[in-house]
Amino acid sequence: MFNKIFINKSNLLHNLNYIKNFLDGRKICVMVKANAYGHGMSEIAECLKDEDVSFGVSNQEEAFSLREITDKQIIIFGAVENYKRIIDSNIDFAVFSYNQIKNILNMQKNIKPKMHLCLNTGMNRYGINDKNEFLKIIKLLKKHKIELSGIYTHFSSLTTDEKYTERQKRLFYDFCYLLPSEWKTQTHVGGGKTVFENIDAQMFRSGIEIYGYGDKNLLPVMSVTSQIVDTVKVKKDEHVGYLCGYTTQKDITVGAIPLGYGDGLPRKLSNKLQIEFNNNILQNVGNICMDCFMVNIDKSKAKIGDNVVIMKDATQLAKLIGSTEYEVLTNFCKFRGERIIE
Q: Where are the alpha helices (DSSP H) in the chain?
């Protein structure tokens, strides 16, 4: 295949061990939702098969696919439908209300679902924020002789609003205090850089950090490469690509690279993207197409069949489009090519 994503296992394990230094032996849940932030869920699971980690996903489809390749703890953090299959597959899942839990327990007698109750401490996305409802849930579960497998919250503004974060922490601790002392419920937190914060929890969900972003000591795990598959000589004052997206100032030679926004390369990078070839920088010219983009290969000696590096660091691309590493990386969920562990 022309297009390849390389997963640097050494960098991934470096990031994991760096994070562990902040956690004093507490657990890590590696978030592999959205195809492991574009890296490849099966590839990341393979790299971490010998590590003491849990995995977090967004939906039941991701969980079922992951269960086929690992027996580690899997937690679904989004809404689910097929509770029976989830329970039968030994998959943990999030719950968001008393009524939801009641309906699950009424579905079938003698089930032991591994439920993690979402606490809404200020994200205002999922979960409960009422202590009376929390106490009702505890009473209901005691009646059925079931414990919560976990309770968790998600911080919305760790890096931008210290006061709001402290409020979220306080609310989270208040809920944790209400747990029955005999329960072995796991407390966990997530939300951008929680792994580096002094939060009282038993497990920390790590997403962007595990993949190399959010701290200067972390190393990017993913790189994206392709090849030049065609070259075209373009005369001065001619146009390149859709909508006449680039007009030449002189005669140039253009190289075509078979990777486009259909593979996750943001169209907003048009005429901004710079890629590497043999320590040279090749400038994108014209609008990025669904299946390819073009670069000016003058003075580079690049030719058909030569390999090029499209991305080594998502931060650089994120700055060019005014977005975040999250968006750049997860765009590559739809990557049409080969993922290689190196």
A: 9-20, 33-37, 41-47, 60-67, 83-88, 98-107, 131-143, 162-177, 314-321, 325-331
Domain ranges of the chain: 9-206, 222-341
Among 212, 109, 248, 104, smallest CA distance to 117 is for 104
Structure confidence by residue, pLDDT tens digits, 56-99:
999 999 999 999 999 999 999 999 999 999 999 999 999 999 99
What CATH number matches the domain at 9-206, 3.20.20.10, 3.40.190.150, 1.25.40.10, 3.40.50.300?
Answer: 3.20.20.10
Q: Do 47 and 7 touch, CB atoms closer than 8 A? A: yes
Buried b (16+ CB within 10 A) or exposed e, 195-204: bbbebebbbb
- Residue that the structure tokens 């497998």 belong to: 149
Placement of tokens 């409020």 in the chain: 167
Query: What pTM did the predictor assign?
Result: 0.94
- Gap between the Cα atoms of 236 and 250, Å rounded: 4
Task: Report the CATH number of the 222-341 domain.
Answer: 2.40.37.10
Residue 39 pLDDT greater than 90, yes or no: yes
* Residues ≥6 apart with Cβ < 8 Å to 180: 138, 142, 147
Nearest to 134 by CA among 171, 170, 169: 171
Nearest 5°: the CA angle 142, 147, 150 is 140
Q: Give the tokens for residue 82.
A: 């097929």
- Report the pLDDT value the prediction gives residue 258, as an integer from 0 to 100: 98
For the chain, the first-to-last Cα distance in angstroms comes to 16
Q: Which two tokens stand for residue 80?
A: 């689910």
